[in-house]
Amino acid sequence: MDALSRRAFIAGSAAVAGGLALAARPSALFASSKLSFEEFRRHDGLSLGQLVRDGEVSASELLELAIARTEQINPTINAVVLKHYDQAREAVGQKLPSGPFGGVPFLLKDLGVSMRGTVTTQGSRLFRDAVAESDDAYVQRIRKAGLVIFGKTNSPEFGSNPSTESTLHGATHNPWALDRSAGGSSGGAAAAVAAGIIPVAHASDGGGSIRIPASCCGLFGLKPSTGLVLKDAPGEDLRGILSAQHVISRSVRDSAAMLDLTARTDLGKAYAAQADQGSYFEQLQREPGRLRIALMRDPLLPIPVDPACYAAVDMAARQCAALGHEVVEARPPIDMQAAMAAGGTMSVVGVAERVAAREAQLGRAATAEDLEQVDIGMVAWGRKVSALDYRKALEDLARLREQMRTFMADYDLILSPTIAREPPPLGELDMSLPLDEFGPIATRSSVFTTLYNFTGQPAMSVPLFWSEAGLPVGVMFAGRFAEERTLLRLAAQLEQAHPWFNRLPAL
What we know:
Helix content is 40%, strand content 14%. With 507 residues, the chain is of the alpha+beta class. It has a single domain (6-497), classed as Amidase signature (AS) domain (Amidase signature (AS) enzymes), CATH 3.90.1300.10. The strands form four sheets. It has an eight-stranded mixed beta sheet, sandwiched between helices. A three-stranded mixed beta sheet has the order 1-3-2. The chain is globular, with a radius of gyration of 21 Å.
């Protein structure tokens, strides 16, 4: 990647490596590598890739460090549910493609991806033996970048839960507090990154599933604009036009560089105009200018907000003002009830469609032994949606996007809490509940995030705050459609002003 100049690399390494307070226990598992686990954890993905290119460590050594950490910590957190160690060892035994992440170990989410010869369960017993015949476009890009895929991370069934808990794979525990949720649906990815297995992991977001776990686990999580990142896996579009693919990471620059590797370049005028500003990684070396930021402290539904979430967003607002940005309390004039109804229609149709496709493959109907109770309810609802209902949902979402475009003409960004609560206790978001009981509980986690899935806008959770209980509480910034570059410039500025890379769980 041309943007990875030596000057930028050195500056970035200094920013992420300074003053680390490492709490990991030493283990003989790591003794065979030139790099100790403590040293491994001092690096983000780009820095590890540089070590490989410089010959200071091999891809094989990095892989074995990641595997060793998985074997050490996964019994405690349950982040990695499918292990592809043999395929990964075979890959590093061959010549890997060179690049900024060449030789860096990587985990896919166990939802919405297709990797040749491996199972993606979608977190569901219905898919527990669904083997992919080929790599999808996302996996092809990851392999081409030289990343080494060695497993898949836990996800709730079909991504339908903002907490990563399922009958098939069990619950993922938050590395900051093992009795708390790591968020969902990319909770396994977030827990793996927070626990030091790898510095960056694949994630996806159909209602907050990148940003919610990033908030819960003290990480950076960017949901790109709808359609920006390559995707074509069967079952990947369980949330239809609401879904987006990307990563969860410890550093902003890993997220930016991964976006350069996976983003499409054929998406029309809105993206082309932004592309003239340079790569996503290049934005980290640019000042964002004086931004006008709408501060939305409360959600657009009558949902209570934890004091820690108010404290987090207020602190972020003060930080932005101190950096020279204009922060104005404002909220878009959105009918969130109507938006939720339209988004719900899209979601249930997507789930019903995926289950129907799997039933056709298996030659039998899905039963209560195959699916969570919540998803049984979603399938039943989705099968009742008429063509007229579906068209109305599309029209309502189009109207919502237009309303948001009008609002965003006066603001560069919207700042809000990422979620309305601290990481919830495990077991509270129980998918054995009926759908009408589960929905209101889940909405407390997703009430802020889902808006930007409905509108297609990019949004990021930034780890600027920890509660009195020591739990991470993220704040969210949303930008105009296709303007990820504005978000990344601000994220880099915040990361430098209020660094978080040295905040690690004592695990």
